[in-house]
Task: structure prediction
Amino acid sequence: MWLLSILLAALSGLIGGYLLGWFVGRQEAGEPTPAPGTLTLPEAKKSPDVPPASPEAENSSEAVRKPEPQPPSGNNAEAPIKIIAAPEAALKAFLSAPTWQERAKHSLLSENTANQMKSYYSQMPDGAVKVMRIKLNDSHGEEGEEPTFYSYLVSTETHAEGFPVAVVRTQEGWRVDWGSFVEFEDDHFSRFAGGRGGDTGKFHLLVRMTNFAAPAIKGYSGFRIDPPMPGRDRYAFAPTDSDLERILRAAATPGHPASAVLELKRHSVEGGKNWLEITSIVAPNWWPESE
Result:
């Protein structure tokens, strides 16, 4: 019996030493020891493209990644908006107006001009102007401030060379000077100089010192005048040694014509001819008065 007890004790010591050595070896190797009552799960692989959602966003729509909007392409792409300066936009609205009533809305002093337009277009064709080209020509304003007047060169089917049209800034917006526009568009000066209409008129003209001998008219000095379109120049005369003649001569230096609004009187002579007298300077420039 004593021999059997010795054998059982030796076997128990051998098994205990083996288990103790296995346990110590695992600890020295650094293997983690699971906590009681838990299971060790493999770490989940994370997608490199989608960041993990925050706890606050897990139960909200923010947890779902929305596709980023793409720029339109092909036929669905919107064309870029062409920005037009306000004065030019007003001019285009004026020119494209189908009736004088619509044109009056874009005209300078439209309330005062409406009756003149109504009377004028009762005898002249009305409708939109067929424009070939619009080009900025000049601007005017107080020094250091934005311009209050713009001049555009407008080319039409009847005037391919173009003529200036003034656009003025008012409290209601930009407005077009209808008076000078219709004067150039319908060639009022040529009609007047050719003997049509009344014997007096006011016109936007360039005044030049003549390089040629003007027809001799006793008591008068000659100047060359023409509207801002080619082939329409004429001689006009102011009383010699008058204030009017001195002002015109001082303004129209050689090679530098003066632009002014002149009042003219047409005198008839024998043989169906006529000559033009400058009776006054209505305005020393072409810029219209604002409202």
